[in-house]
What does this fold into?
Amino acid sequence: MTAIQQDRTTRDLKSVAEQAGRDLEDASALEILQWAVDTFGAKFCVTSSMEDAVVAHLASRARPDGGPVDVVFLDTGYHFPETIGTRDAVEAVMDVNVITLTPRQTVAEQDAEYGPALHDRDPDLCCALRKVKPLEEGLTAYDAWATGLRRDESPTRAGTPVVGWDEKRQKVKIAPIARWTQDDMDAYVAEHGVLTNPLLTDGYASVGCAPCTRRVLEGEDARAGRWAGRSKTECGLHG
It folds into this structure.
């Protein structure tokens, strides 16, 4: 199958997503990504938080004939140095096209308008300004995007489809490793020597912005280190 170049209507895209969600539920992650690049071509991208480079690596193996897959990274201005280092390493060693998105305001500009440490006072607004809005703007050129969401990460992600419809953004949303477990992740990283964020070996089970991320305690959920002590469990990118 070759990429269809004409613009699809929203109805067309939604239909494609719903059908693929049924057809690809039992497909491998690589098969799902190969379907995505064959179907959407340059209008498909992968997003990565650079917690690890597993989906980026899979995308490099499923690249279309037209060139490397775009890997979109949100630089919020609050990342750990290790996260920026992981992005730079991915860009240097993988056959992908890393695109870095930034918010409209620097951290200093946001502090001047909203006051310092907005993430402590209103983390939802901070995420909206530094993650959600930049991603919405960055995805305008694409019909479909892939994420590294897994069903086993948290109860809120348990129903993640391998291919679904992103109603908010009116795009096809793909989660090629949705059915994977942490053991699957570890095995893939070991087999292929995939880059991972060094913080994952320093007590962090999930890596986000530095002010809102802590190490997890023994027995805690993998997402427990994100916005600890708050009811907030997601940044808004996936819901």
